[in-house]
Amino acid sequence: MTNSSRVHLVATLAMGSLLAIAGCGVVPGTVSGAEPMFVYVGTYAPEDEPGIYIYRFDPATGALSEVGAVAGIRAPSFQALHPSGRFLYSVSESGDYAGQRAGAICAYAIDPQTGGLTLLNCQSSQGPGPCHVCVDRAGRHVLAANYSGGSVVVLPLRPDGQLEAASSFEQHRGASVNPARQEGPHAHCVNVDPAGRYVLAADLGTDQVMIYQYDADHGQLIPNPALPAATVTPGAGPRHFAFHPQGKWGYLINELNSTVTAFTYDAGNGSLTAIHDISTLPAGFTGKNSTAEIAVSPDGRFVYGSNRGHHSIAVFAVDPQSGRLTAVAHHSTLGEEPRNFAIDPTGTFLLAANQNSGSVVVFRIDRHSGKLAPTGHQVHLPTPVCVTFRE
């Protein structure tokens, strides 16, 4: 892939007319239940095949209608939307971008009328295997985690949405107890805290959540002097982290031992304090399993995590006083290997991407219990691994 790679929009005709399409990601704010939304689904497609699929989402029924797909990017396995809704950023999870031992982050402009994507440019992620990306609260920088390289990077944004070369790079170091998966650092996600003052990076290989002070003016990461890292149980394998809407708790899903670690979060100094660990699996399950995604419901009452092996979404209730989790239910994703899922901005639906069986399945969320019910709606596509919404 090169920065001059052309992006091809593969449009699907429905009832004789081209349906409008738009970028993926969640734009902050309230979403009217009557307004349509759009969903991007990232995949592990090769560069010359469609990789990011676009769907129209009916917020009344949960139905998905495919309207297009974008090619020209290899393995677009995770995306993030600019706060303005004008730009989309995707990883290219590779290790040989432009002759470097690195992957890439690519910027797309979203057509305000059709939602179509135009490639703006790509920049090196400065390490191989970028697997997670986010945009800071002010929309001035993109941050990414390089899994294979065990590093995190910050890339400034121009006003036109294009990416500049990295302004900050942090190489993680260390290992842990699992020789097959934790022989070295493997940064798996990067999150900016709600106040935009600190950055947290979960590292599967070191069993740590690295904590950085964030200089948003200059796009710099500075190891946090109060607590440079929070350490979890050896062999846990931190994967993804999600903040509670109130900002005082955070939840880390651990890939290797199928647990969630609940933390209190001190926004004043960026420190994490573990509350407890809880299994993502039902009692009595003895098969192989690894976890993937974690999300908190918009109202903050429930936490959801995906199981690969048990092929389910685990549902937890959040204690409103302590932040502790209690297991509520485990729901089949009606497919295999749910790598990623997303909750729509209204908190009404959850869309689960089953990587191995090639489906995105839509569930309705019970607002009172947090439990899931299949809507009967699903779409099929190769290796879906990322689901994000846009109004």
Distance between the termini: 30 Å
Task: State which percent range the strand residues make up.
Answer: over 45%
Proportion of helical residues: under 10%
Adjacency order of strands in the biggest sheet: 1-6-5-4-32
Number of strands: 32
Q: What structural class should be given to the helix and strand makeup?
A: mainly beta
Indicate the radius of gyration in whole angstroms. Answer: 19 Å
Low-confidence stretches: 1-33
Q: Largest sheet at a glance?
A: 5 strands, antiparallel
Shape: globular
- Whole-number mean pLDDT: 91
Number of helices: 0
How does this model look, in words?
This protein is mainly β. The protein is built from no helices and 32 strands. Strands 1-6-5-4-32 form a five-stranded antiparallel β-sheet, with no helix packed on it. Strands 15, 16, 17, 18 and 19 form a five-stranded antiparallel β-sheet that branches. Strands 7-8-9-10 form a four-stranded antiparallel β-sheet, with no helix packed on it. Strand 5 and strand 6 form a beta hairpin. It is globular and about 50 Å long.
Give a brief description.
The chain is an all-beta fold and 391 residues long. It has no helices and 32 strands. The N terminus is likely disordered.
Describe how the helices and strands are arranged.
Layout: E1 9-11, E2 13-14, E3 17-18, E4 37-43, E5 52-57, E6 64-70, E7 79-81, E8 87-92, E9 104-110, E10 117-124, E11 130-135, E12 141-146, E13 151-156, E14 168-171, E15 187-192, E16 198-203, E17 208-215, E18 220-223, E19 229-231, E20 238-243, E21 249-254, E22 259-266, E23 271-279, E24 290-296, E25 302-308, E26 312-318, E27 325-332, E28 338-343, E29 349-354, E30 359-365, E31 372-380, E32 384-390
Antiparallel strand pairs: 1-6, 2-3, 4-5, 4-32, 5-6, 7-8, 8-9, 9-10, 11-12, 12-13, 13-14, 15-16, 16-17, 17-18, 17-19, 20-21, 21-22, 22-23, 24-25, 25-26, 26-27, 28-29, 29-30, 30-31
